[in-house]
Amino acid sequence: MFNPSREQVRQFFTDAWRKHRSAGVLTPLETMAVDLMELHPEYHADLERPDAAEAEFSVEQGKTNPFLHLSMHLAINEQLSIDQPPGIKAAFHSLLATRDAHESAHVIMEALGETVWESQRLGTPLDTEKYLELIRRHATRN
Length: 142
Fold this sequence. Notes:
Layout: H1 6-21, H2 28-38, H3 44-48, H4 66-82, H5 88-95, H6 101-122, H7 128-139
Helix pairs in contact: 1-2, 2-4, 4-6, 5-7, 6-7
C-alpha cells in the first residue's frame, strides 16, 4: 500500500501545479489533482509558495490545509470510482439532486473527516455505515 509522507504529498501537489502553470506534461493523477486545484483558487498562492512543504496550516490561524483538503478530494474521487465503501456512489448521486458535484464532494469530505476523527478518538476501525449514513442524511436535506 502506498503511504506517502507529508512532504511527499505536498511535493506532489506543488509539482503538479508548477507543471500545469508551465504547460508541462502531467501524469493522469496530476491531471486529476490540477482539476481539483483549479476548483480552489484560494489555494493557488499556497501552492506557489517555495516554503509550502514546511508551512503550517493551523485551525487556530483560521487556515485550511490545502494539501489535506486536496488529498481528501482525491481520496473521495477514488472511493466514488470504485464504489468503496459500497453505496457511496449512490449516496453521491443522491447529493447531486440538490447540489453540484463539487459541493457534493465537500459534503462527503465533511462526513469522512467526522468519521475518521471518531475512529481515531475511539481507537476503532472506520465505521463505513456511519460514514454513509452521514452522507445520506445530507442528501435528504434541502
